[in-house]
Amino acid sequence: MSELVTGEAVALELRPAKLPSRALAVLVDLAVAVIAYIAVTIGVVAATASLDEAAQTALSIAMFVLLLVGGPIAVETLSHGRSLGKLACGLRVVRDDGGPIRFRHALVRGLIGVIEILMTLGVVAVIASLVSARGRRLGDVFAGTLVVRERVPLARTGFVPPPPPWLAGRFSGLDLSAVPDGLWLAIRQYLTRMQQLDPQVGWSMAEQLAADLAAHTGTPAPQGVPPAAYLAAVLQERQAREARRAFGNGPGAGGAAAGVGAPGGAGVVVSGAGAAAAAQSPYGPAVVSPAAAVPPPGVYGSGVAAVGGQPGVGGEADRSSVPQDVVPQTPAPQEASSAERPATGFAPPA
């Protein structure tokens, strides 16, 4: 793997082509050029049979230069570094900064290639490629180019388990700009292999990574959240931001639902289907704090006290904002009989 730095200070990781693949591409190009040269020579000789020997020799030299030297230069210029042999082998010629080559690059490579490939049967090119750290021959060195592999095999990456649903969108306010790429890579590698580690070792590694991540974000890890779940949720938040930045406000770009706790909040209560889903998660269920299980005094409001079994002012509004598993079930008040109702002097219209 070679790291190229562009003019915009962007590091590009490219795979320089190996000597066997480059040699195979050169052989394919030479075979095509020789076949074309022989076919054109036969046609020209048949058409110029009446010319003298000197004229035929001059035409042969011109066709040699045109097909075996000018042909590869023209093909690499028009295809931006992809000749027939390189296209068949999945290779491409690029500049040192990773950009496409131009005519001057192809011209220098072609002219020097005549000396180090055709005149020396490729011996000089092989020696120069073996000596160079990136496998460049003399034509690449003088032209400022590099032959890279375009067909890079996909690396088999491990599966990262999704974070628990009760952490969805909880870290949407974190500042992730100061987190280095090395830490993201370490977090991803840990999440893909955490089920293969010893539980104690995995827990200590998760705590260390969570501490490093919290130090770079400037926000402490929330209490009551397992460190592995915290890492997975923050990693998912980073991936969601990258997707929104790349594709705009597409499906799922709206982020998490509103009303989820802040990053530094306390543990949350998970009940019903959410608890079953959290129990099946590889990160484990949420740690419920004792204070969160029982609502504090005054959670139903501080209006007029209940009279006759009916809630006071503001009771119904506060009751709707409390989860159903916390609201105490009170029997419905029975209506008073007409004899017990006080007279108000109000008569309904006929």
From TrEMBL:
Where is the protein situated, by its record's location annotation? Membrane
Task: Identify one Gene Ontology CC term for this UniProt entry.
Answer: membrane
List, alphabetically, the InterPro entries matched.
RDD
Transmembrane segments in this chain: where? 24-48, 54-75, 111-131
Domain RDD residues, every copy? 17-144
Where is the region Disordered?
Answer: 302-350
Coiled-coil region = none
Q: Superkingdom of this entry's organism? A: Bacteria
Q: Which UniProt keywords apply?
A: Membrane, Transmembrane, Transmembrane helix
Q: How does it sit in the bilayer?
A: Multi-pass membrane protein
Name of the protein: RDD family protein
